[in-house]
Amino acid sequence: MSIVLKQVFKSYENESGVYPVLKGIDLSIRQGEFVAILGKSGSGKSTLLNVMTGIDKPTSGTVQILGTDLLSLPHRKIPSWRGKNIGVIFQFFQLLPTLSLLENVMLPMDFCGMYSPKEREQRAWELLEQVEMAEHAHKMPLSVSGGQQQRVAIARALANDPYIIVADEPTGSLDSKSAESIFALFHDLVARGKTVVMVTHDTGLASQVPRTFVLTDGILVEKQVAENYALM
């Protein structure tokens, strides 16, 4: 299995008490699957993504990714492990504003020591071409649109050729034509054996994914999404 979560609970504590976000999540995803996790705002989608990628730890339960028990990894080793194995596409891009778009895509390769310096630059150019951003390679993130920044964020997630791509609302900032292009890229990645997990509130996108889960109030259920499933 590529991803296995068993009885994952996650709660946060504040002045008002304990607030449960994930309530006993069980999830198994095979390598090479394309999976959508659908839910309303506040349903716990981003928290689930963070637990799945090792960005956050569950309150209880087990998280196994590519056969590795994330909870047993020393905290200091998780970022480099994630950088080599999981490409994360964040909802709000998180590009470094002081680096060019090309340098942002090269950054994960530098951080994880992947490829030679010459290969890193060549690979970054190729990835920017895939997302139709090569002509803007030397621009800074704030000089391009939000949709263009999202494309670069997707290229950066692919930098180390990871086994798993996890995307948090990956097409939310894109126009319909660009969204279709990125969605086609995800299908191509799956055809090449990558696992893609897409977190979204868009029922239209989710309906095009072979396997869909719905997250409601911290509870995850696998189902075919009904046409009248309304999201706020």
What does this structure look like?
The structure is a single chain. The protein has 232 residues and is of the alpha/beta class. It has a single domain (33-57, 74-222), classed as P-loop containing nucleotide triphosphate hydrolases (Rossmann fold), CATH 3.40.50.300. The chain is built from 7 helices and 10 strands. The chain has helices spanning 45-53, 78-85, 101-112, 117-130, 146-157, 176-191, 203-206; strands spanning 3-14, 17-29, 34-38, 60-65, 68-69, 86-89, 164-168, 195-200, 211-216, 219-222. The strands form 2 sheets. Strands 6-7-8-3-9-10 form a 6-stranded mixed beta sheet, sandwiched between helices. A 4-stranded antiparallel beta sheet has the order 2-1-4-5, covered by helices on one side. The longest helix is centred in the C-terminal third of the chain and has 16 residues, at 176-191.
What is the CA-CA span between the terminal residues?
A: 33 Å
Q: What would you say the CATH architecture is?
A: 3-Layer(aba) Sandwich
Strand tally: 10
When the domains are counted, the total is 1
What's the short story on this structure?
32% of the residues lie in helices and 27% in strands.
